[in-house]
Design brief:
heterodimer, B: mainly alpha, 9 helices, about 45% helix
């Protein structure tokens, strides 16, 4: 989705922000570094890092961005639990863009690939 | 008093988020398809208990979830199989297998009950995570409402994906006509469809916290959001990467 959005808006981005590369997260995405760190501390349930990343995002981008970011992060905290609990395979394994993104981000390393990468 | 006032929030919370959190709490308290209102609220409470469960913490470190003996810290209001399923979904979901779900079904936790339980757990957890992300206190759980369960099961089901039956892509007809537009649906949307109301909850909450089905087609910026689509997907991608999730 990030790649598709970047193509749609003709923005140069670096997907490695998704893998935690702070410099990459800031390429083409406003507040990318702050958003990445906030998302990371929510996902890791890191009670030390979370207040720091929350304040940094608030200072940089303001409360409306912080609240929207919290909503998205909270939403995706449940997605892995649905996918793994039900054992669903990921869709459209054969599209060029999907294959390229999976290769760029090395998604094969995930343990849940055993369910997700089965052909549907 | 009305739930989700967000009076303690130092940040203004969007009205649609307040509304959807409140709406889910109301549905949570009501009898569902396979669980009573009281049991649904107990499942939600158990999703919170799981985060403090020492047995879960130790089991997560074990090579196999079946080699570590012990007992969950739990509220005492649910059958053992349901307690374990809730705790697994919260703390060790990547090691849930088809055999685990099948064995539970054979032992009395039906697949319909399991899917409704998954829906309750993930919705409650997601709302709680929203609060935690913003440093807000968790919302007290609602008082359960009395009434009969519906035992509703969709007419059209298939066994082509996952550990449980799901409504097929072309199954959005009749009572399920509202589940998704058109005759195509991603697997993650189909996941909870054995209990269609669980998908309806998933979709309503996702529409407020992330994007509605319609807004997902907008790859630039939803006019009701402060962040654009790239910012949204960077957050989604980073969370999913840490969780080792393809979605």
């Amino acid at each position: 989705m990030l790649r598709v959005s970047a193509i749609t808006t003709e923005t140069e981005i670096d997907l490695q922000g998704v893998n935690g590369n702070e410099q990459a997260a800031a390429v083409g995405i406003e507040f990318g570094g702050e958003l990445m760190r906030f998302a990371e501390s929510v996902a890791r349930r890191d009670n030390h890092a979370l207040p720091v990343s929350r304040q940094a995002l608030l200072d940089a981008a303001g409360p409306a961005v912080l609240v929207d970011a919290a909503g998205v992060a909270a939403n995706f905290q449940r997605m892995v639990r649905i996918a793994d609990s039900i054992g669903i395979p990921v869709d459209d394994m054969t599209t060029d863009i999907g294959q390229q993104v999976r290769q760029d981000l090395d998604l094969q390393r995930f343990a849940s690939a055993q369910n997700s990468l089965q052909p549907s | 008093m009305q739930s989700f006032q967000y009076a303690d929030s130092p940040f203004p919370i969007r009205a649609d988020i307040c509304d959807e959190h409140r709406a889910f709490w109301l549905r949570l308290a009501q009898p569902g398809s396979w669980w009573s209102g009281a049991t649904r609220v107990a499942i939600a409470q158990e999703s919170r208990n799981a985060l403090e469960c020492e047995y879960c913490r130790a089991r997560k470190q074990a090579l196999s979830p079946y080699t570590h003996e012990g007992e969950h810290s739990h509220g005492g209001d649910l059958p053992h199989l349901a307690v374990d399923a809730v705790h697994r979904i919260i703390t060790d979901q990547s090691r849930i297998t088809r055999k685990y779900v099948d064995d539970n079904a054979a032992a009395g936790l039906s697949k319909e009950q399991y899917v409704e339980l998954v829906g309750i757990v993930v919705a409650t957890f997601s709302i709680d995570e929203f609060h935690r992300a913003l440093g807000l206190a968790l919302e007290p759980l609602p008082q359960p409402m009395a009434g009969d369960i519906s035992r509703y099961r969709p007419a059209m089901l298939s066994e082509d994906i996952g550990f449980v039956p799901t409504v097929p892509p072309e199954g959005n007809v009749g009572n399920e006509a509202d589940l998704w537009p058109g005759g195509r649906s991603p697997n993650v949307v189909r996941a909870l469809t054995l209990v269609p109301d669980a998908l309806r909850d998933w979709r309503a909450l996702g529409g407020a916290q992330y994007l509605s089905f319609q807004s997902m087609q907008n790859f630039v910026k939803d006019e009701h959001r402060a962040i654009n689509r790239m910012q949204t997907e960077l957050i989604a991608g980073r969370v999913s990467s840490i969780n080792e999730c393809f979605y």
